[in-house]
Amino acid sequence: MKAEDIPLIRKIIRRNKRLELLFAVAGFLALLVGVLTFVALFAQMAVAGWERISPDFFTNFPSRRAGQAGILSAWVGSLLVMLVTAVSAVPLGVAAGIYLEEYAPKNLFTDVIEINVTNLAGVPSIVYGLLALGVFVYTFGFGQSILSAGLTLGLLILPVVIVATRESIRSIPLHIREAAYGLGATRWQVTRDHIVPYSLPGIMTGVIIGMSRAIGETAPIITIGALTFIAFLPESPIGPEFPWLNFEWLKSGFTVMPIQMFNWTSRPEEAFQQNAAAAGFILVLMTLAMNAVSIWIRYHVRKDIKW
């Protein structure tokens, strides 16, 4: 290096540092805009609907009188639909991601599947609703039920879970596989004892994202015929006799929180607008609680992992 090159190098370094600082500031401002927007909307819903939040609001059915209306059927329906969604999408999505990443041969057929899975993650939700209407409601005869809604939302988040599973598996260092194979482990033993446990935090992140999207979806649920006014609850999943399970609730009509909010916001009375704001506030809290539980599980799983 020549002595006359030193000032030029210093100038390039200073310029790169300034660009790095500008990029960091721009990223922070973008993050701040998103966070402040969410906080402002959340605070607005809380202020507008706080007066309506009471134990009766959780235990009353919807009513034509705004002061007596509640969200009992909506939040119970949301929980049951999310249960079906999780049971149908998470095991299948994780298994498909593991197969595509660890077992599937690298050929044209696999490439086509991978491209389609990636593209399906960006398909509008109304398309899944139309597909479910033709397949689950009419072809399979499930009707306008909790089962149809849960399977519809399961299809919606399935590509997200698959992509997140594959990306999480790809992030595992290669030396872990090599060490396991070097000790004589089979492919299944490597997948079961190393790949899945080490990738579980990333998989949980994908599940969180998918379930958070599903709990707020309205278009596919409306398409398959969710009720806007419902004054009954599905049968209990717990039966009175052995094996103490009852699956009749899967065939029941339902409504969910976004549908109930849509029904109230379409009414001109101010009291119903307050009900919608209170329901939106509770829906956000349900989503945050669900995410908090998943993050807590992910944290403890990650803490127990020893690389």
Short description:
The chain has 307 residues and is mostly helical. The protein contains eleven helices and no strands. The chain starts with 5 loop residues before the first helix and ends with a helix.
Write the layout of secondary structure elements.
Blueprint: H1 6-49, H2 55-59, H3 72-103, H4 108-120, H5 125-139, H6 146-170, H7 174-182, H8 187-215, H9 219-223, H10 257-265, H11 270-304
Membrane topology: Multi-pass membrane protein
Keywords: Cell membrane, Membrane, Transmembrane, Transmembrane helix, Transport
Subcellular location: Cell inner membrane; Cell membrane
Model description:
There is one protein chain. With 307 residues, the protein is an all-alpha fold. It has two domains: 3-49; 55-304, MetI-like (MetI-like fold), CATH 1.10.3720. It is built from eleven helices and no strands. Helix 5 crosses helix 6 (146-170) and helix 8 (187-215) packs antiparallel against helix 11. The longest helix is centred in the N-terminal third of the chain and has 44 residues, at 6-49. It is globular and about 85 Å long. The mean pLDDT is 85. It is found in: Cell inner membrane; Cell membrane.
Q: What are the key terms here?
A:
307 residues; mainly alpha; MetI-like fold; 2 domains; 72% helix; 0% strand
The shape is: globular
Which fold does the CATH topology of the largest domain refer to?
A: MetI-like fold
What's the domain count?
2
Oligomeric state of the chains present here = single chain
Q: What is the mean pLDDT?
A: 85
For this structure, what is the CATH class of the largest domain?
A: Mainly Alpha
The N- and C-terminal alpha carbons lie at a distance of 42 Å
Any guess at the CATH architecture of the largest domain?
Answer: Orthogonal Bundle
Protein name: Phosphate transport system permease protein PstA
Subcellular location: Cell inner membrane; Cell membrane
Keywords: Cell membrane, Membrane, Transmembrane, Transmembrane helix, Transport
Family: Belongs to the binding-protein-dependent transport system permease family. CysTW subfamily.
